[in-house]
Amino acid sequence: MAFPPQFLEELRTRLALSDVVGKRLRLIRAGREYKAPCPFHNEKSPSFYVNDQKGFFHCFGCGAHGDIIGFVMRHDNLAFPEAVEALAGEAGLPVPRATEEDKQRYERRKTLHDLVEQAARWFEQQLYAPAGRAGLEYFQRRGLDTDGMARFRLGFAPGDSGALRSQLLKQGFSEEDMVTAGLLKRPDDGRTPYSFFRNRVIFPVTDRRGRVVAFGGRILEGDGPKYVNTADTPLFHKGTLLYGLSRARQAAADGKPVIVAEGYMDVIALVRAGFEGAVAPLGTALTETQVQELWKLIPDAEKVPFLCFDGDNAGRRAAWRAVERILPHLAPGHSARVAFLPEGEDPDSLIRLHGPRAMQEVLGEAIPLSEAVWRMETEGKPTDTPESKAAVKAALDSRVGQIADRDVQVFYRTEMRRRVDEAFAPPPRQRNERGPWVPGGQWQGGGRFGQQTRRHTPGLPGLRTAPPPGHRRRNPGNLAAARERVLLAVIINHPELFDELGESLGMLPFPDRELEELRQAVIGLLAERRENDSGLDAASLCRHLSSAGYDTIVRSLLSESTYVHAGFARPDASSLDAKRGWWPTWHHLHHRQVMADLREAEAALARDNSEANFARVVALQQEVIRSGMGMTDDEDLDDA
User: Does 142 reside within a domain?
Assistant: First the structure.
């Protein structure tokens, strides 16, 4: 069975060899490679090596060697077509069938790859020719020596508009292919095509495998845009690639940070300073496809790419545009941090003046996306009236509403609500400016203007400020923690209820640190599987939690001490019984949280008897009533 060559190429690019091998062998990192005992012959010490950057495996013991398809064929004992179809399933690619047109298209791409590679070599040679002296001096002024220029394959396009065409024609390439590859531009009047890049220093752009597919050019003198880039071609789509991508893939695999800079020279400066995970968009703002590519680079879910921008107003605008692109695609483990350089500096100038440590400090001060969203909607905005404050809150709600992942959106809404409450709370009043707040809604003492101020809070049934005489109160902390354990036990034992209960669980952070970490882990695992349309049963979920280091707390949680007062949480309870028991338990904890919010609001009202603070108290009192309605009467409601 024949497969289109470009499909096989995409398959090898889409899947990391170490990921495929790692599902079948236990790999150990060895520098830039991975090693393991060879699966093809008996040995005790590992001599089997996997290299993602080069895309092959090799055993120094038995000589086994090959690419990702060859490994699956040999290890899984599959024929070539079966191995390809198995890998296509892992990559999520439909398996096409080769046609004559596919074969011709592949041969054409091979020709274009050869053509662009020869052009890159010619540009490199021109940098050291008399015509390239201006380019050579430019790079030297930017701190690059000969080795540095060779490392990044920098070049120069002379002003002669026919020189590149003549050279490539001598090597047997066609004029039409030069136009297709973006090297020549054909005039509208049909005259001879001329060089697209003229009198510019040249930055070769490589694909994921390190092959040159396009160029960027910076003008040195004369009219024209400062930078131009190859237009989209059969080899290159500028919205999908990043400058420095092939090098960054290996750097990210080695645990180095992925940094998105704004330009070619910024990437070069960062890489030379040891930040080899540096990349840059290609003449456009960061695209959604490029964002997804960044997340693919980083194997560790706890690490995120850094979006690095100049510290001026233009840099901030670029940062906010990038955040706008990323926000809809946030998911558990998929985020970013935003780093701003000092005013007037870019990575190149900062590193040349102050060294790599200064750049590391910039990364250390990077802000999370939630902080970036807050700054986007608050910096420079008026907040001196209730209407302007409401406008900021509405803008934040709208921005957060763009997040597609429901669980991430819930956490963002909680975070933004907290920030709004803190930012818009009035400053504390001077002591004795007002008297204390007493039951009945009256202030004792002088008001703001030396007059007595009185406000009545509508009587709301069910709000008790003290337990009735003779009441023996339970320990509220222990009771709340027990309820938190019950909620988690229900979800772990009945993960099929997550679609219905997950959002409510996400709204209810737990004070206990261990339980809170477990809650987030459970939500993250089940949300990820829901997005991938592949659910987890209780046993699989427990195995995942155990492998993530939660074995002890899960075993403690799923024990008789939890079930003794909550039989509905047991694994053998029906889903209906589990759900019926879950909601009253959740309402108790939610009621506790709302009561805490009410106490904070009453304290704010005591400091400032404003309309806004009064309205918040009333709203929370009503919310307390609503939350209390969801609770059963078999437990004490005063534990909040």
Answer: yes
Q: What is the pTM of this model?
A: 0.57
Residues 85 and 111 grouped into a single domain: no
Domain boundary among the residues 384, 402, 424 is at 424
Per the listing, tokens 């120094």 go with 60
In angstroms, rounded to a whole number, what is the distance separating the alpha carbons of residues 380 and 395? 14
The pLDDT tens digits for 19-37 are 899 888 888 888 778 899 9
The answer to whether residues 447 and 453 touch, using CB atoms and an 8 Å cutoff, is yes
106 and 72 both lie in a single domain: no
Token code pair at residue 273: 């300073």
pLDDT in tens, 475-511: 556 778 888 999 999 999 999 998 888 888 887 878 8
**What CATH number is given to the structural domain containing 633?**
1.10.860
Structure tokens at 75: 């290890």
Long-range contacts, stretch 546-552, CB < 8 angstroms, 24+ apart: 548/521, 550/517, 550/518, 550/521
Q: State pLDDT tens for residues 190-213.
A: 789 999 999 999 999 998 878 899
Structural domain count, the chain: 4
Write the DSSP assignment of 260-276 as a string of letters. Answer: E-SSHHHHHHHHHTT-T
Residue type, 113: H
- Nearest CA to 372 out of 333, 408, 412, 409 is that of 412
Same domain, 193 and 331: no
Q: At what angle do helices 100-127 and 133-141 cross, to 10 degrees?
A: 80
Q: What share of the chain is helix, strand, coil (3-state, %, to 5)?
A: 50, 10, 35
Assigned token pair, 328: 């809809």
Q: Could you say which of 424, 450, 484 is where a domain stops? A: 424
Residues of the domain holding 170:
100-236
Distance CA 536, CA 502 (A): 14
